[in-house]
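User: Okay, second chain of the day. Same drill as before: sequence in, structure tokens out.
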Amino acid sequence: MDGNSLTEIVFSGLSVLVIEDVADGGDAVVVTARTREVGVPCPVCGTPTAKVHGYHGRTVTDVPVDGRQVIVRLRVRRLVCPVLGC
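Assistant: Same drill. Structure tokens below.
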């Protein structure tokens, strides 16, 4: 079983992400993830887009696992709608 398959079972809420690493940080479990490289509809007009404007990071904490904090470090894409004026 590969890491992503195991992660889909353990962290089912993260299934829309690609898990790059799960590390034991002592007092915390640190999950490093990124968004998938697929097109998504523009939230305003609905036109599909995969054109990346840039990337930024988010850090999320989740409920403890085995008494240790879970930290999700997430790299997300900022996309651009291809429709002019949207």
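The radius of gyration is 16 Å.

User: Thanks, on to the next one.
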